[in-house]
Amino acid sequence: GVRRSGPELYCELKRRTRIRTVDGTEEPFSGLGWDRLVPSQPLRTSQYQRCAVVTSAGAVLNSSLGGEIDSHDAVLRFNAAPTRGFERDVGNKTTIRIINSQILARPKHRFSSSSLYQDVTLLVWDPAQYSSNLTQWFQKPDFDLFSAYVERRRLRPEQPFYILHPDFIWTLWDLIQDNTEDQIQPNPPSSGFTGILLMMSLCREVSVYEFVPSLRRTDRCHYYELYRDDACTLGAYHPLMYEKMLVQRINQGDQDQLRRRGKVSLRGFREVRC
Ligand code: NCC
Question: Which of 28, 89, 136, 252 is the most buried (most CB within 10 A)?
Fold first, then answer.
């Protein structure tokens, strides 16, 4: 990968990030009538002014950021991260939730009944192999997301619920590799990084909380669980450390905001002429 300046990196991200969801126009989905199953309104037509991305890191505990987070027009959260009981630190507004396919496939997440996955825009992704095509992916996803997706679309057709296209996920991986000196494993980017690029595409301004660690940094994995593992913050499977270095390079906010509050400020792609 080459070393670009902050503004060059930002423009490279803008040029190559194209939100894509499964829209039913390609096989095998076209043959299954998915053009009528997916929401008729494309995801990229949602537009917001000020957006917040709230990671699930343990370090958001005791941040008192809840009020500030809720003051944004749209708030993005991840997987099973709750707000109830944690309002002071993470707020209580959720506009979009990005979930990985484990949430749909594993009974412990109670996808069909839990209120976490209702009344919000949902985006699910599954790590297809880098080189596999959609038919191979459909036959053998990492976790079976397709049956629960079909069921939810039938039960609640009014809920905006999208499957992120594997090509979108892998384009983000290419972007990380092309801007990183080391050779990284071809594992998909974390939900967090995907969410940041998504919101830069949909919003004018994006505030990201506790993606790049603050002074509160801890080995506690999630704010909502006691489990401890440094790999949650640094990455093991996902290229998380590299993702964090890229985001830090395009941060428009100051060091004090980053260290004290864990806040990175980014400009939406529409805001900057490259
Ligand atoms: O942990 P997870 O992510 O749900 O966290 C959401 C995003 O927040 C950022 N994060 C989280 C914890 C931390 N200490 N530091 C952080 O920066 C990351 O950007 C992360 O993406 C995922 O990306 O989907 C992930 O999901 C979990 C798990 O599947 C879900 O929570 C559902 O239970 C993965 N863990 C396992 O599979 C065991 C995790 O690797 C990535």
Answer: 89
